[in-house]
Amino acid sequence: MAKLGKVSVEAEFMAQVVRRQPSEFEFVKFAIEGGVARITLNRPEHNLLNEVMLREISDGIAAAGESDDVKLVVMDSACKVFCGGIDIGEYTSQRVFQMLDAFHGAFASMLEVGKPVLCVVNGPAIGGGAELAAFGDLVIASPKARFAQPEITIGVFPPLASTILPYLVGPKTALELVLMGEAVSAERALELGLINRLVPEAQLEQTVKELVTRITAHSGPVLAMAKKAILGGMGLSLRDGMKKSMDIFLNELYRLEDSQEGLRALVEKRKPNWKNK
């Protein structure tokens, strides 16, 4: 009976969670322009993640995913720190379920949204902040960035980093990062494959603009299907991954007007005119 009571309390809580509109956000800035949804973490001074901020991240990504005008999501920070991790004030016995639900929801939204997510890291990314960067489809960083999963030093482990890091850097390095709890520099993060590009801070904004321009020049639905094919094959055998990717290619991609337009444009030696459908 106790278990049923707990489930009913959790179900009642879930029913009370109402999705916020971007105009109502308190700790996240949200804007859509030029095919890009920009989600800017803005809880000075260290962007510590509380329940409200995590739900705003999730709701912002959901809003971007539902917008036909968006091809790419860019996540960055308005603070000197990209994200300092979870606000430990949220870890109380009374709030642990709500907090973990919000935490899982934010990261699930990054993984499940059809639009690619680009993280721009220009400062420390610690704990949950490092996990945010790890869940980005692309990551650009400056030398000011550093990445750490220090949870082991306070008697816990990072559940999401423990899941995704083996995919990104292999099990041996993932074990080192989690068990040691030490920060790695941006240079080391590039070597490990935690980030895609490392650029001087003075060139960071221009590099992001160039990457955004190149990505948003492509068809939005095709970008989404490419992400789906890559992430959908993770954890599968090579044979099963190939089958899944070919199924998406043949049964979803070829139904798009843009895929046919791309082939016509190639034959006619012109730039494609994407309709994003």
Describe the structure.
This protein is of the alpha/beta class and 277 residues long. The protein folds into two domains: 2-216, 2-enoyl-CoA Hydratase, Chain A, domain 1 (Alpha-Beta Complex), CATH 3.90.226.10; 220-268, Lyase 2-enoyl-coa Hydratase, Chain  A, domain 2 (Orthogonal Bundle). Helix content is 50%, strand content 13%. The chain has eleven helices and nine strands. The chain has a six-stranded mixed beta sheet, sandwiched between helices. Strands 5-7-8 form a three-stranded mixed beta sheet. The protein starts with a helix and ends in a 9-residue tail after the last helix.
Summarize the structure.
With 277 residues, the protein is of the alpha/beta class.
Total helices: the number is 11
**CATH level-two architecture of the largest domain:** Alpha-Beta Complex
Mean pLDDT: 91
Portion in beta strands: 5-15%
Series of secondary-structure elements, N-terminal to C-terminal = HEEHEHEEHEEHHEHEHHHH
Number of domains: 2
Number of strands: 9
Strand adjacency order, main sheet: 1-2-3-4-6-9
Structural class: alpha/beta
CATH superfamily of the largest domain: 2-enoyl-CoA Hydratase, Chain A, domain 1
CATH topology of the largest domain: 2-enoyl-CoA Hydratase, Chain A, domain 1
CATH class category label of the largest domain: Alpha Beta
Query: Regions with pLDDT < 50 over 5+ consecutive residues?
Result: 1-9, 11-15
CA-atom Rg in angstroms: 20 Å
Largest sheet: 6 strands, mixed
Report how far apart the termini are.
51 Å
Principal-axes shape call:
globular
Helical proportion, percent range = 40-55%
